[in-house]
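Re: weekly structure request thread

Next one in the queue (371 aa):
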Amino acid sequence: MSADVFGRSLDCWINIQQVTCNSMMLRYSHKEWLVPVIAEVSGGGEIFRQEQAGNLAGRFAFEDLAPDTEYQATVSINGQSITLDFKTLPEPGSERLFRIALFSDTHISCQKNARNGRLHGESIALLRSLMQEAAKSADYIIGPGDMADGGAAAEFAALEDIIKSVNIPVLAVPGNHDVPHGGDERFARLFKQTTFFFERDNIQLVGLDTGNGRLNKACNREVIARIDPAKAVIIFCHFQLFADEWIPDDDKVIFDADECSDMLEKIKSLNALACIGHKNVAAKVEMGNFIQLNLPQLTHFPAGYLILDVYYDEFRFRFEPIPGEILNEYSRLGTEAARYHSHPKCKLKSEYRDKYTQFYWNGAVKNGLSL
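Done, posted below.
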C-alpha cells in the first residue's frame, strides 16, 4: 500500500462523514484489521487523540470542538497516515423552528440478499430502527422516493407497518422503484397522495411526483402554482429537476424538461432548497437562491439519511450514517465490484460515491440559500 493512495485505495477508505458546529465523525476501513488505528484532530490550540484496534471498519467521533474553526484530522495505520481538513459550522444564530428526517431510497425489500453492495436485505430492520430513532427529535419524516424496491404488495405492507411504529407525520413522493407492478396504486393508498403542499413557520414544503421521471403532470402544476415566490421553499422529489456536473448517468434528471419549462423557470427563481433522491451521490446544483441537493440512500454506500434542521434564518443539515460501519464497508466493496456506479474522473467507485459527503451532506444554508 503506497503512501500516495493510503486512505484512498480499495483496501483502505478513510473519509469525513459528518461535521457539526462542535463535532466531527470520520469512517475508516483497512485490510490489516488487527493493527491499531489512531486518529488525531488538531486545531483551535488543542489536540484530540483516539485509538482503536481489531476493527475491519469503524468510526471516530470527536466532540467538544470549537464552532466555526478549522481543524485537521490525521488517521494513522501501520505507520502510514492521511490528513483531512475540515471546518466546524458556526453556531446557529436563532432557535430551531422544526426538524425533518430525510429518508431517501429506502428500497424496502423482502429479499434476504442483494447484489452489488446493496443492503436491501437489511432494509426493513434499518428503516424501522432509524425511523424510530429519528422520530424522537424530528417533527416530520419525508421520503423523496423509492421507498419500496419493486412496488410489491409485501414491500408496501412492511413499509406501512414501519410507518405505524412512529408517532410523527411521514410523507413521501414516489420514485421509479415505487411505481411498477401496481406499486403506483399501493403508494397512493399508503401515503394518500403523490404530491403535497403545506406551510410551517412561513416555510413552504412542497412534494412533487416524478416517479416515472416526468414533471409535467397536472398534480405537479397545481402544487407549483401554489408556491409563493416571496417565501422560502423546501422541495422534495425523486428525479433531479436540473442536471448537475458530477453524476454522469443519463437518467439522473427529469425526461420532459422541454415540456415544462414554465414550471422549471419558476422553480429555479425561488428562494428554495430542493432535496432529491434517485442517484444518492452527494452532488448539488446552485442557481441564484435555488439549491438542488442529492440525498444519501439508506441501503447503499455511503448508507444513511439526512437530518434537516429549519431555523428562522437558515437551513442546516447533517449526514447520519447507518449504525454499522461493517455494513457500510460491505456495501462499499460490493459497489467496487459492480459494473456500474462509476465516474470517468475517479479511479475508485468509492471516490465517486463518497467524494463530497463531507461538504454537501453537512452544511448550513442562509436565508439567501448560498452554501
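The mean pLDDT is 95. Helices lie at 123-134, 153-164, 183-191, 218-226, 261-268, 325-337, 349-354, 357-360.
Next request, please.
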